[in-house]
């Protein structure tokens, strides 16, 4: 777990010294301040998780400071210290957001107990804790299926990387090979596991919004910024920030991310001070980063920085021996999800699944099994509901690699293009385009790069048109 930072604020030297010693011995990172002015400066620079704050300071009232600090950082845990253990100031401090209250003279053991309890309570209170538990269960069980040598290497690397606490990781591999799953596995096996895992798709967010999303902004940073807003690095606390599709990150942002990786510092939009982050960064891309570096689209220094710890995920076609295990895993999963009772997969179906090349990798396999199970009424999964590409039977295909129809006008005087029909009285080209884009995306299991290539258009053009035809949701995802 990330070491917590504690700021001790008291004007008595002996108290500062003894509290500092005790907390350092217990594994905390501690700094101290002897008055309000110094406390304010250290609050900004040191960014503590907790403050032990004396109520009576020579230049300030601890209660005022409490309000000010909590206003700046709601997550700050404050324990008040006072010479007068008056019940009314205790109640007031708690009302103003202090977590606890200790009266002088105090026993050091009691303070330590109070510090631990306060951290514990805050952690449990965190509304995400419950959801994290649920997610954790989902991902904790051996949900990364694979026993081929390449996947064994991947599992070993996950362990190494999870233990190498603060190193930035790069996960590469084609679309659908399991990069996100691996990122989550690293998080869950690391010391950051009890904190949030937050994913950012760098390709889905326009450059101007990305910085705001990652770093947050101060009030008044731009015209619409009427409130201060936390960024993802702040929300992740000591957890993990997963920067997905890093290859699509604009160059300007790359420089800022490099600074976060190197110094753990960043600045909110419109902010005057650097913020410190305890979050770990995991990155992933399906692009060829060395090639992007050559083309000047990706910073060489950032590449070398993240490339030190790389996990490369194999194509599914390179690990066909894992297919039966994956198929059975997905059958179990969808039995559970859809209340089905499929008991086995017939031998012919399994052999078709083994012989197919899976351009969309594990995602395509998962989608295939899901669809077949939705349509299967019996207890044995047959090949009846597999698409033409897999059965090798073209006319069954609902999608096609070639957008040109293979047959001429059909019985209904329609021109058939996959699921698409050209009605007698015509249709707008926009409808045709929309349908082709949908077909291509399905054909490539949502991989926009491949879908765009297939339609001989750039990825940006594809994205623009997906938006235009309402093929993306608010997150920019399909
Ligand atoms: N080894 C695996 N075991 C079980 N399921 C897997 C495995 N690898 C991938 N999957 C499943 O396949 C799907 C795609 O995985 P994931 O989203 O991690 O791929 P990705 O590499 O991030 O793809 P993209 O580049 O398109 O974002 C998910 O449903 C995931 O659960
Ligand atoms: Mg992904």
> What name does the CATH topology of the largest domain carry?
Rossmann fold
Tell me the number of structural domains. Answer: 3
Strand content: 5-15%
Structural class of the helix and strand makeup? alpha/beta
Shape: elongated
CATH superfamily of the largest domain: P-loop containing nucleotide triphosphate hydrolases
| Unreliable residue stretches | 394-416
What does the model show?
This protein has a 5-stranded parallel beta sheet, with helices on both faces. A 5-stranded parallel beta sheet has the order 7-10-13-6-14. It is elongated. The two termini are 36 Å apart. By secondary structure, the protein is an alpha/beta fold. A hairpin with a 2-residue loop joins β17 and β18 (420-422). The chain is 45% helix and 14% strand. It folds into 3 domains: 5-125, Response regulator (Rossmann fold, 3-Layer(aba) Sandwich), CATH 3.40.50.2300; 132-314, P-loop containing nucleotide triphosphate hydrolases (Rossmann fold); 320-468, Helicase, Ruva Protein, domain 3. Residues 394-416 have low confidence and may be disordered. The protein binds adenosine-5'-triphosphate (ATP) and magnesium ion (MG). Residues 179-180, 244 line the site of magnesium ion (MG).
Would you kindly provide a brief summary of this structure?
45% of the residues lie in helices and 14% in strands. By secondary structure, it is of the alpha/beta class. The radius of gyration is 28 Å and the shape is elongated.
């Amino acid at each position: 777990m990330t070491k917590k930072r504690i700021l001790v604020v008291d004007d008595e030297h002996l108290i500062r010294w003894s509290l500092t010693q005790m907390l350092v011995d217990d594994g905390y990172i501690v700094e101290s301040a002897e008055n309000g002015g110094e406390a304010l400066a250290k609050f900004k620079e040191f960014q503590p998780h907790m403050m032990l704050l004396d109520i009576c300071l020579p230049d300030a009232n601890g209660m005022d400071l409490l309000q000010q600090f909590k206003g700046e950082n709601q997550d700050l845990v404050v324990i008040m210290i006072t010479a007068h253990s008056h019940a009314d100031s205790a109640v007031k401090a708690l009302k103003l957001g202090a977590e606890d209250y200790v009266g002088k003279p105090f026993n050091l053991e009691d303070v330590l107990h109070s510090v631990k309890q306060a951290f514990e309570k805050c952690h449990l209170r965190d509304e995400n804790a419950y959801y994290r538990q649920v997610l954790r269960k989902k991902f904790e069980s051996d949900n990364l299926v694979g026993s081929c040598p390449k996947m064994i290497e991947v599992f070993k690397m996950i362990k190494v990387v999870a233990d190498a606490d603060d190193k930035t990781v790069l996960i590469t591999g084609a679309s659908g090979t399991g990069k996100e799953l691996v990122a989550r596995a690293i998080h869950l096996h690391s010391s950051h596991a009890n904190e949030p895992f937050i994913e950012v798709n760098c390709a889905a967010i326009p450059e101007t919004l990305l910085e705001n999303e990652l770093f947050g902004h101060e009030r008044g940073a731009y015209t619409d910024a009427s409130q201060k807003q936390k960024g993802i690095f702040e929300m992740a606390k000591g957890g993990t920030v997963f920067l997905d599709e890093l290859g699509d990150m604009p160059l300007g942002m790359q420089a800022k991310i490099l600074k976060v990786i190197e110094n753990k510092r960043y600045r909110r939009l419109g902010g005057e001070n650097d913020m410190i982050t305890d979050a770990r960064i995991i990155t992933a891309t399906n692009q060829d980063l060395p090639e992007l570096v050559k083309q000047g689209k990706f910073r060489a220094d950032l590449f070398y920085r993240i490339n030190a710890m790389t996990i490369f995920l194999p194509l599914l076609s390179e690990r066909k021996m894992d297919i039966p295990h994956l198929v059975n895993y997905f059958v179990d999963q969808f039995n559970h999800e859809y209340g089905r009772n499929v008991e086995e997969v017939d031998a012919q179906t399994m052999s078709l699944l083994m012989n197919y090349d899976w351009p969309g990798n594990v995602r395509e396999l998962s989608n295939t099994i899901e669809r077949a199970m939705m349509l299967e009424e019996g207890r044995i999964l047959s090949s009846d509901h597999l698409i033409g590409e897999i059965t090798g039977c073209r006319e069954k295909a609902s999608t096609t690699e070639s957008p040109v129809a293979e047959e001429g006008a059909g019985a209904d005087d329609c021109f058939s293009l996959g699921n698409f029909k050209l009605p007698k009285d015509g249709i707008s080209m926009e409808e045709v385009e929309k349908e082709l884009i949908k077909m291509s995306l399905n054909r490539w299991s949502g991989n926009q790069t491949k879908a765009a290539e297939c339609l001989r258009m750039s990825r940006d053009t594809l994205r623009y048109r997906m938006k235009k035809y309402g093929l993306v949701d608010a997150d920019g995802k399909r």
